[in-house]
Amino acid sequence: MTVSGGYEAEPKGLNPIEDGDMDSLFTLPLSFIPLKTPALRQARMIKNAQLRSVIELFSDVQTGSGQIEISDLPKLLNWPTDEVHPDHVIIRKLSTLHSYDVFSLRIMLRKIGVPLANAADLQLSPEKNQELTHYMTQFTRPLIAEIYGGEDVQVERFEDVVGLFRDPDIKRARQRLQQMADALGIEILEVPTFLEDYGDIFLSLSYYKQCLDRLTPLLDVFLASMYDIRKNYQLRQDQNLLRNCDMIENTINELTAAITGRFENFERSTKAMWEDISADRFQKVKELIQAYHVTIGGVLCGLTVKMNAWIRLFPKPTTGGPVKRSEFIMSDIRQGLDNITKIEDSAPMMALLS
Fold first, then answer.
1. Residue range 82-131, pLDDT digits in tens
2. Rounded-to-integer distance, Cα 109 and Cα 94, Å
3. Angle at 339 between CA 336 and CA 345, to 5 degrees
4. By C-alpha distance, which of 190, 188, 170, 189 is closest to 178?
5. pLDDT tens-digit profile of 119-166?
6. Contact 256/302 with Cβ under 8 angstroms?
7. pTM metric for this prediction
8. What is the C-alpha to C-alpha distance for residues 326 and 282, in angstroms, rounded to an integer?
9. 3-state secondary structure of 70
10. CA separation, residue 36 to residues 2, 156, 177, 229 (Å)
């Protein structure tokens, strides 16, 4: 087991991206995974700076993070040596996942054959839902406009949309349900399911957009530091370093451009959906967005882990110096970056899904 040292003090204004376990791209609490080993159920799986999945037994600002390689689990946990422990099988499967966000997990846990006792566990926290209110507003506005037209309806959260159909006036509530059913071309009893699907799919899009928005300032700081490395008299003689800096910068720019382009495509598809709304058109938009959950989650997870590692080690522009920064770039930043590119390259073709 390795124990990373206590984290450096971080400056105000730019900190690593941290979320609660169920809201994180790169942290998987093992408490809801069907494992038999108590010590594992109390641990977490995380992505380290090289993007390897490791088991984190403890984490503290003072003591750092206590991590163990998955291959070392049998010895640490005294598992029998004559057969593979079933928990090790599950852990190995989980380690192949590119992201641990709940939307990717819903797809991938089923794909790799890891069942959950309660699928409802894969939900964002109430706090995260509240954070995403601003992002969700752009998706609730056209819904309200379509169903209520010029009515003065106050809606701030998606939950408020659902609340509109729980009017104490039963007649008025039924009228609203019928309005939506007519607009969608579905039966009135199908409206609650539509609302649930609508809220969840655009919550996922809001979540990923927030992840990108939070990541962007960290990427900007990192890319700016590359300039200092290139102009350093000693380091600019190192052609291998300069080639890697160019490769890393190009890779980051290409990855962020690809994700941004997808968000723009999703927005165009959503806008077109509302120009002629129907349950079928919504289903196509839903499937389009879901098709990219694993790709977007994986790319954002990889870049966030890399940038978090950078900000922790170099929290200020003056921390470390160009030489130390170049060493970290050639070790931790470069390692595993090609895997993020592979995730992006494996994404389905947008044209085939339209």
1. 899 999 999 999 999 999 999 999 999 999 999 887 877 899 999 999 89
2. 8
3. 155
4. 188
5. 778 999 999 998 998 899 888 888 877 766 656 666 666 777 777 676
6. no
7. 0.90
8. 48
9. helix
10. 24, 43, 46, 49
